[in-house]
């Protein structure tokens, strides 16, 4: 070989359109995927009932700080490789192709589990509204089918249209929650806001094993913000918009969860919050608002809960679609998933595929006579969030290795400090979460589901690694292209070629060797010639 050799099984299809969404739109996509209003209704009352008190808002603040470390590391990786594959492409750069496949499978499985859990919650969120306006209940499958139809319709639209719909829901959700929080603070229990609502007076509570569980719950409540990385190719600035959007999403979620949980303490009274939360349960947020606001405002809050579920379903649909598109573009999954609609540049085939998966699963649950409710939703969401937590940990480790192995423009913070802090903190949270899995699921330690979730995650990793090894054996060109965003595989000789002999000049050229992970051209992005510019800085 006298120069770089380009290998491709077939020409890549047109990619996603750049310059469609900005950092603010991407931040609202991440906010919607995290569904903070669902956390405030389903998680916060249970934690307050256990006596956590002022530790709850502080735990959300601590979780936001830890995840900002992760955002610093992920933003640096996005600047290196903006890709719709998000964690999949980033893990490939740092930990290799099999690990990248594991990240992709864990992400897709985790987002699907969270999505199905939200479909189970949709019926619960709609029940009070149906009883109020129709005077009768509505079966869960009817609400789930209506939500599925909205998601399937909006999923094939241009990303800026879908982002606009999600952003509208997200802004309305933030406005309503801010109004409820303000009412709680302006009309506190006992007529004044006391320091006990935020100050930890009994420091012995910090020694309880529950503090680890509380921190794990707080971090898991942010799951979904990391999906912002999947919109890097479509951002106004592909190397910056998604990273900035992720940081903004974390800050917004931390403010909402921390501020609203503190306002609930103020409204219920610091000394009686546990009793009130135990009695009112999931209706705590709305019951406290009903004591201070007009009935229409409480009804609007319940509408926002349902709207928050729909927005989360649509946001999760978008990020799953982009993972399927990235895998299809690289021919890891069927190539049709990598096609885009030329008029809208939306990954229509991947979107329709995800809709069919969700629709067939819901139909199967209905035909099987299932009656999903809050407990089923909790199991699914916890399992999915744990899967996403492992993906975050893989990304943090990959960033630490890749950014320091290949020199770049990053400073010490983005290259070393943020990846180290995020790796350590996410590793600790993962240990705490799996250690306290029975409490997260609200089940006895020996219950089969408690063992089934780690088993399913391990099985997902093993299947992904097996998939990667099978591609390496049977489709080496496709295997070499994993993580390259559909670009042709480029082999760059590491040393100048020797002058050919007269006999070699007339010989048939042999097939070039497929590069390994660390070979120039396959692992080092600065040596890879892509057919598509990543866009302006």
Automatic annotation (TrEMBL):
<keyword id="KW-1133">Transmembrane helix</keyword>
<feature type="transmembrane region" description="Helical">
    <location>
        <begin position="161"/>
        <end position="183"/>
    </location>
</feature>
<feature type="transmembrane region" description="Helical">
    <location>
        <begin position="55"/>
        <end position="73"/>
    </location>
</feature>
<feature type="transmembrane region" description="Helical">
    <location>
        <begin position="379"/>
        <end position="401"/>
    </location>
</feature>
<feature type="transmembrane region" description="Helical">
    <location>
        <begin position="26"/>
        <end position="49"/>
    </location>
</feature>
<keyword id="KW-0812">Transmembrane</keyword>
<feature type="transmembrane region" description="Helical">
    <location>
        <begin position="244"/>
        <end position="265"/>
    </location>
</feature>
<protein>
    <submittedName>
        <fullName>APC family permease</fullName>
    </submittedName>
</protein>
<dbReference type="InterPro" id="IPR050367">
    <property type="entry name" value="APC_superfamily"/>
</dbReference>
<keyword id="KW-0472">Membrane</keyword>
<feature type="transmembrane region" description="Helical">
    <location>
        <begin position="413"/>
        <end position="432"/>
    </location>
</feature>
<feature type="transmembrane region" description="Helical">
    <location>
        <begin position="452"/>
        <end position="471"/>
    </location>
</feature>
<feature type="transmembrane region" description="Helical">
    <location>
        <begin position="103"/>
        <end position="126"/>
    </location>
</feature>
<feature type="transmembrane region" description="Helical">
    <location>
        <begin position="303"/>
        <end position="325"/>
    </location>
</feature>
<feature type="transmembrane region" description="Helical">
    <location>
        <begin position="138"/>
        <end position="154"/>
    </location>
</feature>
<feature type="region of interest" description="Disordered">
    <location>
        <begin position="495"/>
        <end position="537"/>
    </location>
</feature>
<feature type="transmembrane region" description="Helical">
    <location>
        <begin position="346"/>
        <end position="367"/>
    </location>
</feature>
<feature type="transmembrane region" description="Helical">
    <location>
        <begin position="210"/>
        <end position="232"/>
    </location>
</feature>
<feature type="compositionally biased region" description="Basic and acidic residues">
    <location>
        <begin position="516"/>
        <end position="529"/>
    </location>
</feature>
């Amino acid at each position: 070989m006298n120069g770089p050799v380009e290998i491709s099984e077939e020409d890549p299809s047109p990619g996603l359109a750049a310059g469609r969404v900005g950092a603010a739109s991407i931040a609202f996509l991440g906010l919607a995927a995290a569904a903070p209003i669902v956390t405030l209704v389903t998680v916060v009352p249970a934690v307050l009932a256990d006596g956590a008190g002022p530790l709850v808002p502080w735990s959300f603040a601590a979780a936001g700080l830890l995840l900002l470390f992760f955002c610093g590391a992920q933003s640096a990786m996005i600047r290196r490789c903006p890709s719709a594959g998000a964690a999949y492409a980033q893990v490939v750069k740092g930990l290799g192709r099999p690990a990248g496949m594991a990240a992709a499978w864990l992400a897709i499985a985790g987002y699907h589990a969270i999505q199905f859990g939200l479909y189970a919650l949709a019926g619960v969120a709609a029940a009070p509204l149906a009883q109020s306006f129709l005077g009768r209940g509505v079966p869960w499958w009817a609400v789930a089918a209506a939500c599925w139809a909205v998601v399937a319709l909006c999923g094939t639209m241009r990303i800026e249209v879908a982002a606009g719909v999600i952003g509208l829901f997200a802004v309305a959700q933030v406005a309503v929650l801010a109004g409820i929080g303000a009412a709680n603070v302006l009309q506190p229990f006992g007529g004044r806001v006391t320091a006990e609502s935020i100050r930890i007076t009994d420091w012995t509570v910090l020694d309880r094993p529950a503090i680890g569980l509380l921190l794990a719950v707080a971090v898991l409540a942010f799951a979904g913000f990391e999906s912002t990385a999947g919109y890097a190719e479509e951002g106004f600035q592909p190397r910056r918009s998604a990273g900035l959007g992720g940081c903004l999403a974390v800050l917004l979620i931390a403010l909402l969860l921390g501020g609203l949980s503190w306002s609930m303490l103020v409204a219920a009274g610091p000394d009686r919050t546990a009793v009130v939360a135990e009695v009112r349960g999931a209706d705590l947020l709305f019951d406290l608002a009903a004591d201070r606001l007009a009935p229409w405002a409480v009804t609007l809050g319940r509408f926002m809960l349902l709207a928050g579920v729909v927005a989360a379903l649509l946001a999760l649909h978008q990020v799953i679609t982009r993972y399927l598109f990235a895998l299809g573009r690289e021919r890891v999954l069927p190539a049709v998933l990598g096609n885009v609609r030329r008029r809208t540049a939306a990954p229509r085939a991947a979107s329709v595929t995800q809709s069919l998966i969700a629709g067939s699963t819901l139909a199967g649950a209905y035909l099987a006579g299932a009656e999903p409710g809050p407990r089923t939703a909790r199991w699914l969401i916890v399992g999915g969030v744990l899967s996403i937590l492992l993906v975050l940990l893989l990304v943090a480790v990959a960033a630490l290795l890749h950014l320091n192995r290949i020199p770049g423009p990053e400073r010490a913070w983005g290259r070393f400090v943020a990846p180290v802090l995020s790796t350590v903190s996410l590793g600790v949270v993962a240990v705490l979460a799996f250690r306290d899995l029975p409490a997260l699921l609200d089940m006895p330690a020996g219950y089969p589901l408690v063992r089934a979730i780690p088993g399913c995650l391990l099985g997902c990793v093993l299947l992904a690694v097996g998939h990667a090894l099978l591609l390496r054996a049977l489709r080496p060109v496709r295997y070499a292209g994993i993580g390259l965003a559909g670009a042709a595989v480029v082999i760059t000789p590491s040393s100048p070629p020797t002058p050919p002999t007269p006999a070699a000049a007339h010989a048939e050229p042999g097939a070039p060797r497929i590069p390994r992970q660390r070979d120039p051209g396959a692992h080092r992005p600065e040596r890879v010639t892509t057919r598509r510019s990543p866009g302006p800085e």
